[in-house]
Structure formats: C-alpha cells, structure tokens
Amino acid sequence: MQTVRQRLTLDGTPESLIQSIEAVLFASKDIAFRLRQGALGGVLGCAEQENVQGETQKNLDVLSNDLLKNALAACPSVAGIASEEEDLPVAANASGEYLVLFDPLDGSSNIDVNVSVGTIFSILPANGGDPSKEATYLQAGKEQLSAGYVLYGPSTLLIMSTGKGVHVFTLAPETGEFILTRENIQIPETTQEFAINMSNQRFWAEPMQNYVADLLKGEEGPMGKRYNMRWVASMVAEVHRILTRGGIFMYPWDKREPNKAGKLRLMYEGNPMSMLIEQAGGISSDSKAPMMDIQPELIHQRVPVILGSKAEVETAIKYHQ
Ligand code: AHM
Ligand code: MG
User: Fold this and answer.
1) With 90 as the cut, is the pLDDT of residue 263 above it?
2) Phi, psi of 259 (to 5 degrees)
3) Is the distance from CB of 235 to CB of 276 less than 8 angstroms?
4) Sign of the torsion angle spanned by Cα atoms 186, 189, 194, 195
C-alpha cells in the first residue's frame, strides 16, 4: 500500500512540490464529500439561488473554487494560483515556489444529472516572478512540474504525473487517503473509439469534417475498421476512459464562435491533460502543434484539442496538414 506522499518521495519529488500537491488533494477530498452528499448538502443548482430560509446557496463550482483557493493559500510553497473561476491570478505566499492552475470542477453541467466530474490541476514553477501578474503564469505546457485530475465518479480517483509516468490513486473512504492502485499507465497506440460532440459537426472546419466522416465509414473507409463513439461531456471522464482503454478525444474549433479557438482552456484543461496523455505514451495537439509547445498569451486562452492514442491522433493531424 503506497500513499501519494510515499510514491512521490520514492520518485525523488521535492518536499515543497509534494506539499503543493497535498494542498490540492486536501481540498479535493472535501469536494468529493460534498458531491457525495448531493442535494442533501444543499449545494446543487445555480449560484445565487436562495434556499428556503432565504440564505444564498453557493453552487459547487464556486464552493470547489473556494476550497482549493483556501487550501493552496495556506500552503507556504504555493506562490500563486489561477482558476477557471477567477478572472485574475491570485497571489498566495511570498515564499512560494509554485503556481497552481486549476479547473475546480470540470464538466459541472453534469453535476445535476449525477454524472462524473473532476478537478484538473497544473503546477508550474514561479521562477521568482510576481504571482499577481498574468505574465508570470504564461508558460508553455512543457514547463509543467506536475499535472493531474481528481475524478469524482463511482470511486474518487487521483491520476497524476510529475514527469515520471502516470499513476492512479484511489481514495480509500475509510481512511481518507489516496492509495496507489495502478502505476505507469500506457495508452494503446491504436483504438476503435472516438469522442467528439457530434452535434457540432456542421460547424467544424473541413479537415475535421473529413476525418470524422472517414471514421464513420468504418470497415469500408480508409481506416479499415469500425469505430465506437462515446461522449460523456466531462473531459475528466473522457480522458480517464482513454487512459484506461485508449481512444481519441477531440474538441475542435468550430464556426459558431469563429473568434474563439475552441471551447476548452489551454492552461488548466489542455496542458495538464496533455502531460498525462504524453506521459502515458499518447499524443496531444491543437491540430497543428504539440499542445505543450504552445506559448500561452492569456491565462484563460482557449484551444482546439485532439488527444489520445498515438497512431489515431497522428492520423487526425494528417487531415489538418
Ligand atoms: P466546463 O469547464 O465549463 O465544465 O466545460 C468543459 C467541458 C468539458 O469537460 C467537456 O469536454 C466539454 O465541456 C463538453 O462540452 P459540450 O457541452 O459541448 O458537450
Ligand atoms: Mg472546465
């Protein structure tokens, strides 16, 4: 039985980085508890909604953000944080060495229907920069020191990497400890499963239209095999399926909002998921460049995403050349 701390120590992870990761996990256990309570916890539904006593209830998005923010601010090795739920970065500790970026509750439209959601995190070096300034955070994904997500599903899982493989830890309900349950995950190189929101098909650019049309042709098409499709609408669940049994996940640019690069965010969705996928032998791209090579210009920058099994992602990228 190995805890996160034991595993990270064996891997030679600096104590300060272990502490930053533990701060994320501390908050995630609280989030897991509140998700389990569901409607009984009074946190479902919309923010600003009033309960019967006329008190304002906070929805889980806002609450999860607060829990993470508080836990990270209390951790001396965290210099600053950036969150999907915060317009601006927040400075934390002057002594801190790390910047922690996170999506507190990804896939939150799934909460009310009781489907898996997750907390995604990415840790970058602070490099002595000002943690209240956006510029300090604008580092390419390849600079990440650690990335991971906590998946709140039938069981609560932590999937993380510090650049030495990808490991899975399962939250033991009786002790509240994340215990190593799979190590060094490797994604199969090929797959017969793709994930994309097909309802947006007519809005995609031509290369994506052509690629997915060819997947749908099955045995009779250029891929020569029949594909299955899955769409949970929760990126953590999607990436987790791919880490477990392979597959390709896509959230492409589409012309509904032509000025937006895509729906997903580079710094706390695209990059951390890319680190996990690549550490597991897969590939992640924005369709033109490796995701983790992109130089971010904004903390909340959006990006098209194609990630998963190596051979399949390579084929998808060829359609875009
Ligand atoms: P969120 O951060 O607002 O929850 O949005 C991100 C989510 C991803 O988890 C998921 O892949 C995607 O949005 C689903 O989008 P769609 O509603 O088009 O199915
Ligand atoms: Mg999100």
Assistant:
1) yes
2) -80, -10
3) no
4) positive
Prediction pTM value: 0.95
Ligand nearest to the CA of 102: 2
Q: Which pLDDT tens digit goes with each residue over 230-240?
A: 999 999 999 99
64, with CB counted inside 10 A (0-12, 13-18, 19+), is buried
CA distance 298 to 301: 5
Residue whose CB lies within 8 A of the most ligand 1 atoms, among 109, 204, 253, 303, for a mutation test: 109
Tokens 């880490």, residue? 243
Residue having the nearest C-alpha atom to atom 19 of ligand 1: 233
Q: Tell me what pLDDT residue 50 has.
A: 54
Token representation of residue 164? 């030495």
Q: What number does the ligand 1 atom closest to the CA of 110 have?
A: 4
Nearest to 174 by CA among 156, 198, 186, 189: 156
Query: Per the structure block, which two tokens stand in for 279?
Result: 């550490």
> Mean pLDDT in the chain?
94
Give the separation between CA 160 and CA 99, rounded to whole angstroms.
Answer: 16
CA of 45 to the centre of ligand 1 (A): 17
Q: What is the pLDDT of residues 284-307, one digit of tens each?
A: 999 999 999 999 999 999 999 999
Q: Probe ligand 1: pick from 84, 202, 235, 265, max atoms within 8 Å of CB?
A: 235
Q: What is the CA radius of gyration of the chain?
A: 19
243-266 mean pLDDT: 95
Q: Which residues line ligand 1 (CB under 6 A)?
A: 84, 103, 106-108, 197, 233-235, 238, 251, 263
Q: How far is the CA of 130 from the centre of ligand 1 (A)?
A: 31
The protein residue with its alpha carbon nearest to ligand 1, atom 4, reads 107
User: Could you report the per-residue pLDDT of 181-215, keeping only the tens digit for each?
Assistant: 999 999 999 999 999 999 999 999 999 999 999 99
